[in-house]
Amino acid sequence: MIYLTLLCEFFKIGLFAVGGGMATVPFLMELAERYPWFTPAELANMIAISESTPGPIGINMATYAGYNAAGFPGSLCATFGLVAPALIIIVIIAKFMSDFSENKYVKGAFTGIRPMIAALIGYAVWQIAVITFADTSGEKIVFRFDAILICTALLILFQWKPTKKMHPIVWIAVGAVVGILFKL
Amino acid sequence: MKKLIELYWAFFRIGGLTFGGGMAMLPMLKQEVVKKYGWSTEEELLDIYAIGQCTPGIIAINTATYIGYQQKGILGGIFGTLGMLSPSIIIITLIATILKSFIDLPVVLHALAGIRIAVCALMLQTVYSLAKAGVKNFLGLFIFLAGFLLATFTPVPTILLVVLAAVIGIVTSARKGDA
Q1: Would the pLDDT of A166 be above 50?
Q2: DSSP state letter for A141
Q3: Does ipTM come in above 0.95?
Q4: Residue B170: its chain A contacts at CB < 8 A?
Q5: What angle (nearest 5°) sits at the alpha carbon of residue A15, between those of residues A2 and B137?
Q6: DSSP-based three-state secondary structure for A87
Q7: Lowest CB count within 10 Å: A106, A148, B28, B100, which one?
């Protein structure tokens, strides 16, 4: 029963993806490896669309992933699965623990979780980078230097003061235009 | 009932009108939740954000749940959360349906290939800023590198890695506390 599987898988993501929307990406990448719901390339599209539409990115991605897996009911299952753990946890915290974020065990746990979440997003980037920067469809792996060059240029622009603060939507639009112009 | 609908509608507007996720939502939340309805103060809002960053789940959703719960108990929490979810479900389902019928056009494929490069660059930047903020010492660097290698090249489940990292963090900081 795909709806129940979606509900359970996204419940697990909601329970373990700490620190906001982007933290769900590595878990979604793992789903792409385990289920035929969507490919890593489709996940990259989902990330772009979720960043360019209103609403929380994590919710947008869950809705999209659920839709790809099982249509509109699938998107509902994925989204509700994702928010259910937080709903329970937040109500408990609101009721019993007013100084939750000051608790020393919580603080301690986060000295480990923060670098791990960064690492896990690194894993998700790696998977997307493999399909973006290399063509593995033939016998030999062919590197796509045009894509590597564009990515490097974007990374430099991210550090450059005048363009540093620009919204991700701008960069996604730039990516689309570059893709169409150079027929990537 | 009126309050519940008010909660739903307020968070519906916040979710439907902010681009870029949780952090980008803060100014809009201030405007609606603090200034317009007086459901919480600015300091309280920042506290909720701090809690949202160290609990599982999406920060924007956690905020909606927390404020809804404070106003009207569990039902309030649920209505606030549903309000925040609704625009995403409507908009994303529409886009996914539309994209499905255009996905084979060459121009769409080229655009998506370019977008994928931008997503790569944006996510690399996210990893960089998260690592910069989260890696404070050698142990942090070790967790970062080991986590990346284990997640990428071994079948160790992601969930297990998060739990392990939390345990390592608790144990090492408890030791430091004793010394």
Answers
A1: yes
A2: -
A3: no
A4: 105, 108-109, 112
A5: 135
A6: helix
A7: B100
